[in-house]
Design brief:
alpha+beta, 4 helices, START-like_dom_sf, 28% helix, globular, seven-stranded antiparallel beta sheet
Length: 144
């Protein structure tokens, strides 16, 4: 499983405000290109974000579902992007000396992506999530 952490200059509550707004998902998730819909209950367990991944004209419509939530500290997701497959993503937040530490753990769990040996799939996931955390920090730190 790929694991990346970044400290942001914000409180856990400020981070959670961004994570709780499903319409912001494509601003910080690398690969997400647009939102089509957000369930009214987001981010409750079982709720979904209906998004597209890729670049036009090769967009794939799929969804991300909440598997577990602890408001302010944990969000466990099942991200789908078929035909590539599915990934489990866990986002943790915890107080840090200079703000909040955000950790993203991700790995392929179904489909062709899960067939790639771990030592080959982890480096691109780690690189992707460095950028995802950078974008999330930009959104969190620049909100009023």
């Amino acid at each position: 499983m790929s694991r990346n952490t970044r400290i942001v200059s914000a409180t856990s509550e400020q981070v959670w405000e961004v994570l709780s707004d499903g319409w912001l998902y494509p601003l910080w998730v690398v690969g997400a290109s647009r939102m089509r819909d957000v369930d009214d209950t987001w981010p409750a367990v079982g709720s979904r974000l209906h998004h597209s991944v890729g670049a036009w004209p090769a967009l794939i419509d799929d969804n991300t579902e909440v598997l577990e939530v602890r408001p302010g500290s944990l969000l466990r997701l099942r991200a789908r992007a078929w035909p590539a497959g599915e990934a489990e993503v866990v986002i943790h937040t915890e107080a840090a000396a200079d703000g909040t530490a955000i950790t993203i753990e991700e790995d392929a769990v179904a489909g062709p992506g899960a067939l790639v040996p771990s030592f080959l799939r982890q480096p691109p996931l780690a690189w992707r999530n460095v950028e995802t955390l950078r974008r999330l920090a930009f959104v969190v730190e620049r909100r009023p």
